[in-house]
Design a protein that fits this description.
Layout lengths: L38 H4 L2 E2 L2 E2 L5 H7 L6 H19 L1 H4 L8 H4 L11 H5 L2 H10 L13 H17 L9 H10 L4
Antiparallel strand pairs: 1-2
Helix pairs in contact: 2-8, 3-8, 7-8
The structure holds heme C (HEC).
């Protein structure tokens, strides 16, 4: 087999008029795994508008999770926490208030995530900021694959809730713990 007459990839050849052994790709050819027609998932937008809710099921599939919805959420959130602390906390700090170490050393401060505007922003906005950057913040499209971007979005939502939740939204156990900690009226 190895000794058969054959052309190596990209070798010159006088067989075809353009002198190349390798044939040009048929127009419209898409490499396996690169058919990104699902705009909501890959771009966080539909018709130029950010999607409201992160696509949990697709993220779960991409991260090879097959547990219950609760397990999936816990896993995605944990993944998001890890990725956020690696890629974002240097500027946004671990709570999202925007006072990370790089900012303390002079980099322009990002806005806090705990503003009414960003609490009301759709999930797709955060995905878009990671994918395309925002103002002075560069994008992270090359470093962070789509499923991890969505995982980070889920964690930003958790950070926002951690600073802005009504006591009535807590589980009974958490409410009890909160009451135990609160000073007596
Ligand atoms: C090197 C510092 C730096 C890092 C790292 C960084 N950001 Fe930012 N981010 C900024 C700055 C600065 C701004 C404000 C940009 C502006 O308004 O010009 C910003 C703004 C934002 C905003 C607010 C957009 C708005 O609507 O106002 C979001 C959301 C955000 N970043 C998310 C992230 C996420 C998620 C990561 C990690 C994947 C990340 N950032 C990593 C510096 C950083």
């Amino acid at each position: 087999m190895a000794d058969q007459p054959h052309l190596e990839p990209l070798e010159a050849s006088d067989f075809f008029p353009n002198g190349m052994a390798s044939r040009p790709l048929v127009e419209g050819t898409v490499a396996r795994g690169h058919l990104r027609i699902d705009k909501a998932y890959f771009e966080g937008q539909v018709d130029g508008k950010p999607v409201e809710q992160l696509p949990w099921e697709k993220v779960a599939t991409a991260l090879h999770l097959d547990g219950s919805p609760e397990q999936t959420r816990a896993h995605v959130l944990e993944r998001g926490r890890e990725r956020f602390n690696i890629f974002c906390s240097a500027c946004h700090d671990q709570t999202g208030s925007g006072q990370g170490m790089v900012v303390q050393r002079g980099f322009p401060a990002p806005p806090t995530y705990h503003s009414d505007r960003l609490r009301a922003a759709p999930d797709g906005h955060f995905y878009d900021v990671i994918t395309r950057g925002f103002g002075r913040m560069s994008d992270y499209a090359d470093q962070i694959p789509p499923a991890d971007r969505w995982a980070i979005v889920s964690y930003i939502r958790a950070l926002q809730l951690s600073q802005h939740a009504a006591a009535s939204e807590l589980s009974p156990a958490d409410r009890k713990a909160l009451q135990a900690e609160a000073p007596a009226p």
